[in-house]
């Protein structure tokens, strides 16, 4: 509400209080035409103003003055001026910018060191003496005014984030093969201590083609191994990789792109703490990894070997024999609410690859040859056997610990 509205409200409120019903209606109409308020709002303003004994605009007492305003009109002068603050700032910087509670007990000692070094030569001796006797409360208030610089430590590989752009709409590439999202799943069993298995999951957003591989730990060597093995199971050309903000995979992809010259692809990353930016691979974590191997802890070489053998079989089953549906469009009502979703006909990743005009013919021949050699019954039997052996390692460990 503007000052004009407030003054008009206070003047009309007194008139409104003393008027009859017809006059009140006329007052409300005039007030609404001048201010643009509704009649209900105008009535509430009048009632509130009538209840208020001293309206804010009509108060005769001046507002409370700030310390700077009081100093300008000749009031009480501040005890500590710019020279004092300069001495305190020099001591504060000498201490490594610690807080006032820690600096106060040693402030005079720090000032003595600054005097001996000649850093306070331009300051008068009186200002130096007064700075040594400052109270802890005032010291904290003065330190709070100093500009704080950002920490120079623990920045890590911040340059990597500057070199790799964020792409929050990577899913828009779902109409062309070769755009791959990357994510990692930890197998720590609820205990993040020590070294445990990490599964790298690579998903082509257009085809739904999936490749998984597991390694012990999440070091640069482990991430390089995962990337090398999953790349072998993606037969078509990759145009862009889209991981989250994990530094090992970002560093690996950037090094291959810049130094080797062999990897001709783009790199983008998702926004921090926005899993929807990697939605195609995130939705696979539950169905293709957790549902398959559970939430157990895997940290031995035997378990890693079984995981990778299982992933190899399951990748083949998922890509060649398990159809999936892609969203084609949404149906909304007159208010823009989604009432239904339309999906394309269910197809396997293999069928999408074969029917795509943007995949090289040689790649199609290679994949078709591989498809003709597969037997789903045998693959499913191998998968069930590997799952049993993997689960047996978990049971054996529980028995030993019991």
The CATH architecture name of the largest domain reads 2-Layer Sandwich
Strand content: 5-15%
Let me know the CATH homologous superfamily of the largest domain.
Ribonuclease H-like superfamily/Ribonuclease H
Q: What percent of the residues sit in helical stretches (DSSP H or I)?
A: 40-55%
Number of domains: 3
CATH class of the largest domain: Alpha Beta
Largest β sheet strand count, sense and barrel closure: 5 strands, mixed
Chain-averaged pLDDT: 85
Unreliable spans: 55-61
CATH topology of the largest domain: Nucleotidyltransferase, domain 5
| Terminal-residue CA separation | 72 Å
Number of helices: 17
Strand order, biggest sheet?
3-2-1-4-5
Report on this model:
- The protein is built from 17 helices and 7 strands.
- It has helices spanning 3-18, 21-35, 39-51, 67-72, 82-94, 100-103, 107-117, 125-132, 136-145, 158-163, 220-232, 247-260, 279-293, 301-321, 349-355, 361-372, 376-401, and strands at residues 179-187, 197-204, 210-216, 240-242, 266-267, 327-332, 338-343.
- It is flat.
- Residues 55-61 have low confidence and may be disordered.
- It has 3 domains: 3-51; 67-145, no CATH class; 178-325 and 374-401, Nucleotidyltransferase, domain 5.
- The longest helix is centred in the C-terminal third of the chain and has 26 residues, at 376-401.
- By secondary structure, the protein is an alpha/beta fold.
- Helix content is 52%, strand content 10%.
- Helix 5 packs across helix 7 (107-117), helix 11 (220-232) packs across helix 12 and helix 14 (301-321) packs antiparallel against helix 17 (376-401).
